[in-house]
Amino acid sequence: MRSLEIHGVDDLRVVERAQPEPGPGEVQIAVEWGGICGSDLAYWRHGVSGTATMRHPFVLGHEVSGRVSALGPGVDGFAVGLPVTVHPARTSGPLPERLAGRDNLHPDLTYLGSAARDPHTDGGFAERITVRAEQVVPLPDGLDTRRAVLAEPLGVAIHAVHRAGDVTGAHVLVSGCGPVGLLTILAVRAAGAARVSAVDLSPLARERALALGADVALDAAEQLGQDVTVAFEASGAPASLEAILRVVARAAVVVQAGNLPPAPVSVALGPIVSKEIDYRGTYRFVSEIEEAVELLARSELAEGVISHELDLADAGAAFTTAATDPHSSKVVLRLE
């Protein structure tokens, strides 16, 4: 079967691997779609994603959807041909009591397509993968596998909204309208926000934000009033965070959804004190991927996040498009 391996910086290879067979408690999935994430691009461009450093080749990808193709011993409740997506996280051992309900922070966690552990965890950019049965998320009626490839990043966005707390009736700011920012707009609107303002330097990104449900889309946060009570920084740019802290209302909640650079950054943090701003981190998700597939089934708006689709054989062009094309948003691979 074909798989997409990363061998080094700017070194992607479509290789033939033996097809994995499902063991006890496992499900084999025929992958149809894979979404290229910022972490995939980071391994390709730098050999590093966050604190994870690539030490040997492995298969990329953690945003996948497809159909059940085989069941391992002891697995029931799934039928061959069932359309599904996958929760990429796999944990082992008990979760510390103080982290109850926060499996995303489990000290012994592996994630599809990650170099955080050695040996690395192979990902989902392959024609067949096997995962634990509890990682398989069936798709609701009305949701096809192409749109379902957005379930993982939408789960990230929904978890960020949960980290913010109740947004009902709030004026919400989303700064940075890449795929996660756009999906945060969709998620926060579904959660009951009264008004959603988006900020991005790109005119095309602002157009997409409006299509996803933003009321206004601006090129600078300073153009907003002082009534923003919840904000999401989704670009990972220190300047974006600093602008948010300047414009949000007193006692606002600010959620850091974008990955900030691993090196020290310069941000004026004074408003956190003077306004008593609640600044919160958010990391991946817990079980929100199940909410994500339900929202994707109800709303076709998420289709606007997908900008390009290319075959697995054209993975190099797909990664280049995702990294450099100003018109790109979520770039997906066809693996059928």
From TrEMBL:
PROSITE patterns attached to this UniProt entry: ADH_ZINC (PS00059)
Domain Alcohol dehydrogenase-like C-terminal: 179-297
Cofactor(s) the protein requires to work: Zn(2+)
UniProt-listed Pfam families: ADH_N (PF08240), ADH_zinc_N (PF00107)
Molecular function terms, GO-annotated: oxidoreductase activity; zinc ion binding
Stated family: Belongs to the zinc-containing alcohol dehydrogenase family.
Protein name in the entry: Theronine dehydrogenase-like Zn-dependent dehydrogenase
Annotated source species: Brachybacterium faecium (strain ATCC 43885 / DSM 4810 / JCM 11609 / LMG 19847 / NBRC 14762 / NCIMB 9860 / 6-10)
